[in-house]
């Protein structure tokens, strides 16, 4: 069984649970989680509308959330520890098709070592006030987050996902 299918099946069996109380209890340690996240690539499973996606974090805590669609189109949401600031959409040939600034609060996230919490009006309307992503794996990342590296990261991730599905 391919690794991504196995992880997907494993996480679907267990409900991803991070209650508001859990989030409140973790709040005093946000600085520790930020320090932990530096220079990492996080492979995230869920929320369902993104499925598997990645968050790259550099040593200055710049973030790039990258989601590859089956059509090989991709979007990158760049931001910081508080959330997204810009959305870039790329076509299957890595052409930048659109770029849009996000107003503060439109998409917020909190990165923990085991979960990522997403919230804001940028996301689909749901019953819960936030969505949860499970950190499925972490990898080292030692580059600076800037738009010039996004096509390379998208290409790398596309190949990585293809390789790990077979």
3D architecture notes:
The protein has one domain. 25% of the residues lie in helices and 35% in strands. The protein has four helices and nine strands. The chain has a nine-stranded antiparallel sheet with strand order 6-5-4-3-2-1-9-8-7. Strand 2 and strand 3 form a beta hairpin. The model has no long low-confidence stretch (mean pLDDT 90).
The separation of the N and C termini measures 8 Å
Number of strands: 9
User: What share of residues is helical?
Assistant: 25-40%
Which segments are poorly predicted (pLDDT under 50) over 5 or more consecutive residues? Answer: none
How many helical stretches?
4
Q: Which secondary structure elements does this structure contain, and how are they paired or packed?
A:
Elements: H1 3-13, H2 20-26, H3 30-37, E1 40-45, E2 52-57, E3 63-68, E4 74-80, E5 83-90, E6 96-101, E7 108-111, E8 115-119, E9 131-140, H4 150-165
Antiparallel strand pairs: 1-2, 1-9, 2-3, 3-4, 4-5, 5-6, 7-8, 8-9
Which characteristics define this entry?
166 residues; 35% strand; 25% helix; globular; 4 helices; 9-stranded antiparallel β-sheet
